[in-house]
Write a structure and sequence with these properties.
alpha/beta; 9-stranded mixed β-sheet; 7-stranded mixed β-sheet
Length: 1505
């Protein structure tokens, strides 16, 4: 109890005994001196005061205040309160269906207890437009946070509407420049949130989430040794203190013998014949109209004559004489609405008389009813070809255009027969139905839906139907002429047994009150009892509840005639309170306490037990008050300790006459339970079902169970039927039911009952939030255990705050009362959950919608952090190892060191061009003289026409002009840095060679995007500043843009260096061309933004340029007569080298296709390849993705255009990442039909330190692939597995290692080499490695560490290596390389910078993203990053916004299942929000900064608890 509620009034303190006051004073002193915590103080104080405080004061005043407008559960003392409140509400709401005093009180107490540990759950962030339901004010405005410009979308205004990804932008995180040590800067940035003010709203929420997660998790993780090689899932250890059953083994309980009454008919049909012929005028069944007034009464005579007509028609009038449509024993569907009991009854008895088997089903309303497909499956498996229905019903069925009844999903083809009297033929006088004594032949089939949603047909024999009627008649003491009011569904279960069978057996009169009437007039059944002086009423708890709601409207009803009020769901946890409340309200209307008769039924066992009508004045049976904790272990314990977690159950009477009952263990062999153990109730009698139609296997385990004792030997030889009900036999052989097998949730070895959890949810002030008390509870299996999901319908007028408040309190209540965590709590809009025919929630369908992501919640709260307690222990990194063990630790004796090399450059003969010229500028001059008209470059536009070409001489002349302008206008000296700002094209190439001619150092930079200057211009500015450029060469258009007003808003435009436009240049010859003194001099600077948001510039010397071009020339066999097509961005890395350098060196012709032109014409690249019959083409992943997604359904169009790709020998994706095999495969498969060879597609691998390490080239073996184990990768190990192994990852070689390149795999911590097929960092040595970083602060140590580093052992030659920063491994294959030796394949796993360290393991974001992208069709893209130690998953939603919240549980499930990680935050955003750079790589750090700065405009942000 909350202590604030225990404050006694000052006067009361004075009245306390002196010793208590002394102890209180002592406590005060301890607190003031700090000897005791506040919490300890409050606990001790409340313990002292509790005996002296009046009970009424117990609830926390804060809670009482919050519960002010809660409807008290109706009890004798408060008869007027609830109804007054409900009069003001719109009629017939039934939020309180399961309200119980006991439960409400327990929930209040539990919530009050939680009040002390203030639960501050962060509320999810939701975009205003997302849900119509949410009121506008529900959105939290950012707290005093001036939003920086939106840098994530192309246009700041239309961000949400533009579904196209913005122009690729390279965005460095605010001001990170390579130069600080990789490790050091990350941590310092973490604290300041990467330059983002931490007071933004997202960070506040995350802080709140972290604080909540710091609260201790309840089941502590066990300490145990984890074998590092295999992650062990924590197996829940049984709690040593858990209660265990102690009783003796139970003995089966017998019911009283079934009385032998001489005039009982030999079959139910005989009873009908008897009454129909001798008592024709007696009423049998009365139907009501919509207002609840009697509209038609069927007499026994009419029932008999019409059933006869129908039987005759069915047997004789449907086919020809020789080929009847029906033979006896055929199954027939009965399709009648719930408000037409008369037509149903005639049809049912007509079938019995014709000896065909009726299968009553619900009227299908739409083609896709909840569970409709399964009903279709049942009809199909029963071989039903005929459906009987009424004319009215037939008219109402959904029709196709031409008036035929639609084919319902999953249903067999049916012939529909209308059974209205006017369509039936009168049988000839001499025709009599064949009525034999009841035997074991099937009489009818009742459908039942299993927990998984499959529909099974329980077949009931004629004998069982008859015996069950006899047993019911005896138990209920039915006599002729009694009136029964039936509110239940008359097609199945107790409604059918009492209202259609037992009434005919005993010539009683049934008044059927349909569900539709109950909706409009909840009191109608009570009025019928009053009007007809009915002796018996058949109801469910909800009917009691509705009657209480409406009872003020009718003062003068009398229930004194009732001798039995049969409550058919008396087995539910809320039935006790419904019965009590109903009795207390209607006792004054003549209701006798002993008339309330709960019973328990199931489709298989039929009536399991029923309380017999009591003797007036006799004491009522006792209640069982059970401990919830005991129940969860399947043990009966009278609750003593905590009255909050008690379950009160009432008995459902005794075993049926002539029956026998035993209780067996719910799982495993049917072992008899001990007397204090809860198990499944089994009944043995002739009055149950005989089988599931057509399912022999399941039938055996359900209908033919022989119980066994503890040693496993059978007890007796009588077969029992499993009833599907859980319970026990109490004192005096009274039967108690505590739940259903279908509602059983097994979580961590404990059992919980779905209905109990529903009751708890409803007891939490659900009026404001839950629509009509509609709550569904089920479990889903995630990560080796069942997890509880609660789904409720939200009232249309519920505010966001109310709903969230309700959700967090339900979590607390369930946690406190049931001691179990809820994994997911979802609210969906009112009336959207799939319904059962009588308006309940269709659980299995709801579960299916939840799992497939189409539930469309409007509020969701996931609590994986609290629920998932079986994760493996985090991996502990081993302490550092000494030098002696370094050798052993990394290299097992005799294992090959993991290294690989390309061909040796020195041994390859070439023409003497290379020996003559060391510099690219010289080679261009030589070509201009030797082959002046040879065209080196052709630039295409979107239409595929050549807009510009450059021959050797033209290029040389243009370069000269630019060089002279640099001298004249720019007054530049040799060695000055010049920024080249051009769109992809030939001008860029001219400017590059112009700089070389002038001795300046070119820096190529992507031009800013005119529509998105705020995002793209700062990057340009940054490179200009970092590279210390003294001049910018550009076009006139871009020059105007740099100085424009819009540009001034983004950067300081006054401080640009000299800007020279190269559009109109004077024709001027350069006096002499610059020649560098040594090849080690700088040729150009290569700047690029890495995926982690680092801006890095590397220095490329003339010798490196020469070596790079030579290696590519040799690998791709390039010479002057060749043509290659390039569709890449030409600003950095290998893309730049291919675009600007290689053609000049090798003399081949390059066809240049700017990637942005593809957005206007997707066919451009492929049609160019086809037109020029290109053998080698280079592209980026973005281009490949664009073609795969955009041309996926256009392959036929490509064919008709005559595009054929069989000319392609190599199609190379230029990349600096792990090969994206899935994309390559889909690209290859897609264009296989137009001639693309699957062997042609390959990738390159480069990094900042060396732009081209691997490239497939023309010779050498095809790229190989391997499957590795993902779990091992997380432990930094490589374990090769077979294809299809669980948790396997497919990796492909990134092309062949270039000539002159050597790689070695190194342990990044010890810097020692590792063995073959071991994971480590890839180090590279080659003549074209860059010569260092170009940064503001030239840090020597970083330079040495990244570019000139040595192995710590095992390398006698002391080679200088450059560290790529990528993890990978080398594996020797069976293939032969060009040199004749076995080929060593290099596999890239991912960048070290990008990996996430979580739970002591190393994760590659791409692996988590791949898992997430697979789960739902509406996920366009996904990116993950960590913030503090939370995993944040951002998904782009390409579907409708109502699917946003469906993704939250799916994302959480898949990451938990496949990666053993709990997602902290799920962010759902619009398509195109995840920033992607020019190479098609996600910029996750940039995304992280935008998220923390609250700039993503997310559709929804869910904080997992």
């Amino acid at each position: 109890m909350a202590e604030r509620g225990l404050e006694p009034a000052p006067a009361a303190v004075a009245a306390l005994p002196p010793e208590v006051r002394a102890q209180l004073a002592e406590l005060e002193l301890e607190l003031s001196e700090g000897d005791i915590t506040q919490k300890g103080y409050e606990k001790k104080r409340s313990k002292l005061l509790s005996p002296y405080i009046p009970q009424t004061q117990e609830a926390d005043p804060a809670v009482q205040k919050e519960h002010r407008n809660q409807t008290p559960a109706p009890s004798a003392a408060q008869t007027s309160a609830p109804s007054k409140y409900h009069r003001t509400r719109s009629g017939g709401a039934r939020d309180e269906r399961y309200r119980s005093d006991i439960h409400t009180e327990a929930v209040q107490a539990a919530l009050a207890k939680h009040k002390e540990q203030k639960m501050a759950l962060p509320m999810p962030t939701k975009r205003r437009s997302t849900f119509v339901q949410s009121p506008a004010d529900a959105c939290t405005p950012p707290e005093n946070f001036s939003a920086p410009p939106d840098v994530t979308t192309t246009t700041s205004s239309s961000s949400s509407s533009s579904s196209i990804r913005p122009a690729n932008i390279d965005l460095p995180a605010s001001g990170i420049v390579k130069g600080m040590h990789k490790g050091s800067n990350r941590s310092s940035l973490m604290d300041t949130a990467d330059g983002v003010p931490v007071n933004s709203r997202v960070s506040t929420k995350i802080q709140q989430l972290l604080n909540t997660l710091k609260r201790p998790k309840r089941p502590p993780l066990k300490e145990f040794f984890v074998d590092d090689s295999e992650e062990i899932v924590e197996v829940p250890q049984p709690d040593p203190n858990q209660p265990k059953p102690e009783g003796r083994q139970m003995t089966p309980v017998k019911g009283e013998p079934l009385g032998v009454i001489c005039n009982w008919p030999p079959a139910l049909e005989s009873a009908l014949q008897r009454w129909g012929t001798t008592q024709a005028k007696c009423p049998c069944l009365t139907a009501l109209d919509v207002t609840g007034k009697p509209v038609y009464t069927l007499t026994y005579g009419k029932l008999w004559s019409r059933s006869l007509k129908l039987a005759y028609t069915l047997l004789n009038k449907l086919g020809t004489k020789n080929e009847p449509v029906l033979k006896s024993g055929d199954r027939v569907a009965l399709v009648y609405p719930n408000n037409d009991p008369v037509m149903f009854m005639v049809a049912f008895y007509g079938c019995l008389l014709a000896e065909v088997i009726p299968v009553p089903i619900e009227v299908p309303l739409t083609r896709k009813d909840a569970g409709g497909q399964q009903i279709g499956f049942l009809l199909g498996s029963c071989g039903v070809a005929l459906a009987l229905t009424s004319e009215v019903c037939l008219k109402g069925l959904p029709k196709t255009q031409n008036g035929e009844i639609v084919q319902f999903k999953g249903w067999p083809r049916l012939k529909w027969v209308v059974t209205d009297s006017k369509y039936l033929s009168k049988p000839p006088k001499d025709w009599q139905p064949h009525i034999s004594p009841a035997g074991t032949e099937p009489a009818y089939i009742e459908y039942k839906t299993s927990k998984e949603g499959s529909v099974m047909g329980v077949t009931v024999s004629r004998l069982a139907m008859l015996s069950h009627c006899q047993a019911l008649s005896q138990a209920c003491n039915y006599s002729e002429g009694e009136t029964v009011v039936n509110v239940l569904d008359f097609k199945k279960d107790a409604g059918l047994w009492h209202g259609m069978f037992a009434n005919v057996m005993n010539k009683m009169h049934t008044i059927s009150v349909p569900y539709s009437v109950m909706k409009t007039c909840p009191l109608s059944w009570v009025q019928r009892v009053h009007a007809h002086k009915a002796k018996v009423a058949l109801v469910k708890c909800r009917d009691l509840h509705w009657a209480m709601m409406a009872h003020r409207d009718q003062r003068d009803v009398s229930l004194s005639s009732l001798r039995m009020l049969i409550v058919t769901d008396g087995a539910n946890p809320w039935s006790v309170s419904s019965c009590d409340a109903f009795l207390s309200l209607f006792q004054s209307h003549g209701l006798k306490p002993e008339a309330i008769c709960p019973c328990a039924t199931s489709a298989e066992a039929m009536t399991v037990a029923i309380r017999r009508p009591g003797v007036p004045g006799a004491p009522l049976p006792g209640r069982a008050i059970l401990s919830m904790n005991g129940l969860s272990y399947g043990v009966i314990r009278v609750n003593t300790e905590d009255k909050n977690s008690a379950l009160t159950v009432q008995d459902v009477g005794h075993v049926m006459p002539g029956g026998m009952m035993c209780i067996v263990r719910p799982d495993g062999p049917p072992q008899l339970c001990k007397t204090d153990e809860i198990g499944e109730i089994c009944v043995s009698s002739r009055t149950g079902g005989m089988m599931y139609f057509g399912l022999a296997g399941v039938t055996k385990s359900t209908f033919e169970v022989i119980p066994v004792n503890s040693t496993g030997s059978p007890v007796g030889d009588v077969p029992f039927i499993r009833s599907g009900l859980l319970g026990f036999v109490g004192p005096g052989s009274l039967v108690f039911v505590v739940g259903k097998m279908d509602g059983l949730l097994m979580v961590s070895g404990r059992r919980h009952n779905a209905d109990d959890i529903v009751a708890t949810g409803l007891a939490v002030e659900s009026i404001k939030t839950v629509y009509r008390g509609r709550i569904a509870v089920f479990s889903v299996s995630v990560f080796y255990d069942e997890r509880i999901v609660v789904v409720a319908e939200q009232r249309p007028d519920a505010s966001e705050e109310d709903s969230f408040q309700w959700m967090s309190r339900v979590l607390q209540a369930i946690d406190s009362i049931h001691q179990v965590g809820v994994y997911c709590l979802a609210l969906v809009p009112a009336n959207t959950l799939p319904k059962t025919p009588l308006g309940g929630i269709h659980i299995s369908q709801t579960k299916q919608l939840f799992l497939e992501g189409s539930l469309h919640p409007c509020n969701i709260l996931m609590c994986p952090h609290t629920c998932v307690t079986n994760l493996p222990k985090p991996r502990q990194k081993q302490p550092g190892v000494g030098p002696a063990s370094v050798m052993v630790g990394n290299l097992v004796a005799g294992k090959r060191i993991a290294q690989a090399a390309g061909r040796d450059l020195g041994q390859i003969e070439e023409n003497d061009l290379v020996r003559k010229h060391q510099f690219l500028a010289e080679i261009l001059q030589w070509r201009a003289q030797a082959t002046p008209d040879h065209v080196l470059f052709m630039l295409l536009n979107a239409k595929g026409t050549t807009v510009c070409t450059a021959s050797c001489l033209q290029l040389h002349k243009r370069a000269e002009r630019i060089a002279s302008v640099l001298g004249d206008k720019g007054h530049l000296n040799a060695g000055d840095n010049v920024v080249l700002l051009y769109p992809p094209g030939i001008e860029l190439i001219n400017a590059f060679y112009g700089c070389l001619y002038a001795g300046c150092i070119p820096v190529t930079v992507r031009p800013p995007h005119a529509q998105n200057l705020t995002a793209t211009l700062p990057t340009v500015r940054m490179i200009v500043d970092v590279s210390k450029a003294v001049c910018i060469l550009t076009t006139q258009t871009l020059m105007r843009l740099l100085r424009s007003r819009e540009a001034a808003a983004a950067v300081d435009v006054k401080t640009w260096p000299t800007i020279i436009d190269t559009d109109d240049l004077p024709r001027k010859r350069l006096p002499q061309l610059y020649k560098p003194p040594t090849p080690e001099m700088l040729a150009y600077l290569d700047f690029s933004v890495s995926t982690t948001g680092m801006l890095t510039g590397v220095k490329m010397s003339h010798s490196a340029v020469n070596a790079l071009c030579r290696a590519i020339k040799l690998q791709c066999e390039l010479y002057s007569s060749r043509q290659i097509a390039i569709c890449l961005d030409p600003y950095c890395g290998l893309g730049f080298a291919l675009w600007c350098l290689c053609s000049v060196y090798s003399g081949h012709q390059s066809i240049l296709i700017p990637p942005m032109e593809l957005e206007n014409n997707l066919f451009l690249w492929l049609s160019t390849v086809n037109q020029y019959k290109i053998r080698d083409t280079f592209c980026s992943y973005s281009v490949m993705e664009l073609c795969t997604k955009g041309l996926g359904n256009q392959v036929e169009v490509l064919k008709t255009r005559g595009i054929n790709l069989s000319c392609i020998r190599t199609c190379v994706v230029v990349a600096e990442e792990r090969p994206r095999i899935a994309l390559q495969l889909s690209f290859s498969k897609l264009f296989k039909d137009i001639g693309l060879s699957p062997r042609a597609v390959s990738t390159t691998f480069g990094s900042r330190v060396n732009v081209a390490i691997c490239l497939q080239g023309t010779s050498g073996p095809d790229p190989t692939t391997v499957y590795v184990d993902l779990k091992s990768l997380r432990h930094d190990r490589v374990r090769l597995v077979e294809r299809g192994a669980p948790q396997s990852l497919l990796l492909s070689e990134s092309g062949k290692i270039l000539p002159g390149v050597k790689v070695v795999i190194v342990n990044p911590e010890t810097k020692g080499p590792v063995g073959d097929s071991h994971l480590g960092e890839i180090w590279v040595n080659s003549p074209h490695t860059a010569s260092g970083y170009y940064t503001i602060y030239d840090s020597e140590t970083l330079q040495a560490d990244h570019f000139n580093t040595r192995l710590s052992f095992g390398d006698a030659a002391q080679t200088l290596w450059a560290r790529t920063g990528y993890l990978g491994f080398v594996r020797r294959t069976e293939l032969t390389a060009a040199t004749g030796e076995r080929h060593d394949a290099l596999y890239v796993v991912g960048a070290l910078d990008e990996t996430l360290e979580l739970r002591g393991l190393r994760y590659h974001p791409i692996d988590i993203e791949t898992s997430v992208s697979r789960i739902h069709r509406s996920i366009a893209e996904c990116a993950v990053f960590t913030w503090t130690n939370l995993l944040v998953v951002v998904v782009e939603l390409c579907g409708s916004e109502q699917e946003a919240l469906d993704l939250v549980p799916l994302v959480t499930n898949v990451v938990l299942e496949e990666h053993y990680l709990i997602v902290g935050v799920v962010v759902v955003v619009d398509p195109g929000v995840i920033p992607i750079n020019s190479r098609g790589e996600k910029q996750r750090m940039h995304l992280r900064d935008s998220f923390l700065a609250d700039q993503l405009d997310p559709i929804y942000v869910a904080y997992n608890m």
